[in-house]
Amino acid sequence: MGRETVTTKSSSAKKSSTKKKSATKSQPLQKGKLLLALGIGFLVFISAFGFSNLIPREFAIYYLIISLITATAYGIDKRAAINEEQRIPEILLHTMALLGGWPGALISQQLFRHKTIKVPFRIVFWGTVIINMVIFYKLLTTPEGTQLLKMIQ
Question: pLDDT by residue (tens digit) across 25-38?
Fold first, then answer.
């Protein structure tokens, strides 16, 4: 009788342990999907606004191109990491993100599972995203920013 109780407890402990493990595994997956959607969503947003002339088309094209270049750099760096070859310096990856390539970086981080764990890198990366978004906002909403955007048209 005592064994049955122990077995039952052990069985329920295994079930709750399994539930915890599956919940833990799904959290990074859900977070990854959200981040992937954020990167793609921003590029869709900026493309739609650029090609409907709500913002200068050149501005939208710039974001698309720098994101593509940044995504490619992440792919090259991932391959170099796998092959133990010379890597792209992190400062270059951060500079590209700061200059507007963060959507491409975000997409590549999720697709290639690259640069998603190292906390110091993540902190600097999100700092570049915030700085870029503040500049983006200022360009679209201030008279000085509007003048700058008109100059590139």
Answer: 556 668 878 888 99
